[in-house]
Amino acid sequence: MTIDEQQTQDLLYAKKEIAYQNREKEDRAAELVVANKELAFQTHEKENRAAELIIADKELAFQNREKRNRAAELLIANKELAFQNTEKERKAAELVIANAELVFQNTEKENRAAELLIANRELAFQNTEKERKAAELIIANAELVFQNTEKENRAAELLIAIKELAFQNTEKESRAAELIVANKELAYQNDEKEKELPNSLLQTESWLSKMTKRKSVPSNWRHQTKN
Description:
Oligomer: single chain
Order of helices and strands: HH
Number of helices: 2
Strand content: under 5%
Radius of gyration: 76 Å
Shape: elongated
């Protein structure tokens, strides 16, 4: 390799190195810009925090004043509470006495309740018996109503039958009266026929004797004539 070629190669290497360093500087410059922006943002945040801290200090001072006021009020309230506790203790003592009285009354009520329970059971038993008797009575009444209805139906049927029998008896009596009249009429007619029969027989015998002279008369005709 010649001296010119070596110099050219060194120059190229130097240019690449310079280009690399320039890129590094640009990157560092860009990072520095970002860092400056971040620092400016943090500075702004610190200022905001400082302003907020001033406000918080004022709020804390206000709260401390309020706490002192509350402490004074709490002292008054404690005195009031002590008085109220004394009253509560007195009321508690009275309540103990009242509770003892209430326990006695409750015991009495329980005794009365037990007695009432027994009485209620007895009453329930009696009511059950009454309901059973009432149910039996309802069944018996229903049976009696049915029997009465049947008796009324039978009585109505019997009344109709009696009326029918009376009507039939009346018809029979009418028929009997008509039959009596008819029998009397028939007896009268028979009497009349019996009175007329001798003359009729004499006339028949005379007629037969005349006919015998002429010709013989059939025996069956003669028998029918007699009848």
